[in-house]
């Protein structure tokens, strides 16, 4: 049996197995990607590459049912959510295609000697992508598409349990018109990845995965002076500070926690509620979590037996140390884990600083904004956050003190192609999505807000269009807000050009 296999997490059945790549296949993949970079990427325009991406976006939509069925089988995502992920991947691809020429346009600079001086974004070569199983299409689309449009070529190593979606993506890009070698899938082992990173043809690495994997890849990339973007784990907070619509807060807390069966790095894992709302919120939240249904497609099985074993051990450990289960029984049936709420968690418990990758919410009560901020910042992770607060100024003040890469005000699920994504601390480094512009330097992170009103009913924009736990959102979008604190690097597509000067 090779490293790559489809094992249906709902049944435990091994559906298909694939052999690991040989050394000869790895070499052929690298050579093909390098050839495509030199002969295609360097000789085409942004507009020409964007046109191919536009066709890829159409294929995501045309093939959404087929693509959805694949990841439903590979990693257990409920079918409706799986189809939604394919649709969202198409939307991301279309957004990059539509905005590419504007986002990558030369930017002229005013200089003292009056020479024509400008920034220009250009590809740098072959980029290695190491992608996870939890969003098999979305994660790839947000990494690969902007790099292909920019003028890089891609060697893609997908998760071991996602070989069929990996092959489907490779075929999709070929069918969209990208030449052979522009996007290459490899069934590489961990040992082979080290050799790939070391290869002089590789100019950068983008990994979405665990903290452990990120540390290994960062060390290997640093040793060989390769650009590196890491999107790692998270233990995001969902802060309920002040609201006239507690039902809305509950709805989004459920959505933020249950998206993808709780298997999302930026899922709302720690639900932190002001004491004046705690009792009412707690009762409504517990009822909503208890009402989640496998049969209705609200959640699916965890991705694997190993994932189920790990989550079960984490919760059992928390209970042994004094935590309390408010909802759930901590007794999975196969890989089906009952949605769970735990409380009475203290800093002395292991779970306090862990990431729970599954449908388990931690519920906390706080008496002040300061206490909420302290709790939020006690995590070693720093990916995203959600703040529910009707007072936007107050929400900004709280958000400005959170050690995270993203602050969403007013609701969960505010991701989009034009929204930079990434974290700080052990959640990683660098950014994906958004405009990879040097002007982002000095921005602390990504902020987004929504203003609420009863007469408007808009569904939130998410990776997969929300699940059954969040039926609708009453929202009116606001413009983005950006903090100017100098703590983070800019959104960073792997590969961009430098400064050009022309005497005219």
CATH architecture descriptor of the largest domain: 3-Layer(aba) Sandwich
Rg from alpha-carbon coordinates: 22 Å
Number of domains: 2
Using the coordinates above, name the CATH class of the largest domain: Alpha Beta
Shape annotation: globular
Which structural class fits the helix and strand makeup?
alpha/beta
CATH topology category name of the largest domain: Aldehyde Dehydrogenase, Chain A, domain 2
Helix content: 25-40%
Strand content: 15-25%
Q: Report the total helices.
A: 13
Biggest β-sheet description: 9 strands, mixed
The H-level CATH homologous superfamily of the largest domain, spelled out, is Aldehyde Dehydrogenase, Chain A, domain 2
Please give the oligomerization state of what you see: single chain
Distance between the termini: 63 Å
Biggest β-sheet: strands ordered side by side in the sheet: 12-13-14-11-10-16-17-20-21
Mean pLDDT comes to 86
**How many beta-strand segments?**
22
Low-confidence segments, given as residue ranges, are: 437-444, 451-504
Please provide a written account of the structure.
There is one protein chain. With 504 residues, this protein is α/β, with parallel strands linked by helices. 36% of the residues lie in helices and 19% in strands. The protein has 13 helices and 22 strands. The chain has helices at residues 23-39, 46-62, 64-75, 79-103, 138-150, 163-175, 190-198, 211-223, 246-258, 275-290, 305-320, 369-376, 392-399, and strands at residues 4-7, 14-18, 107-109, 116-119, 126-130, 153-157, 183-185, 202-208, 227-231, 236-242, 268-274, 324-327, 340-343, 360-366, 381-382, 385-389, 406-409, 424-425, 428-429, 446-451, 476-477, 499-502. Strands 12-13-14-11-10-16-17-20-21 form a nine-stranded mixed sheet, sandwiched between helices. The chain is globular and about 65 Å long.
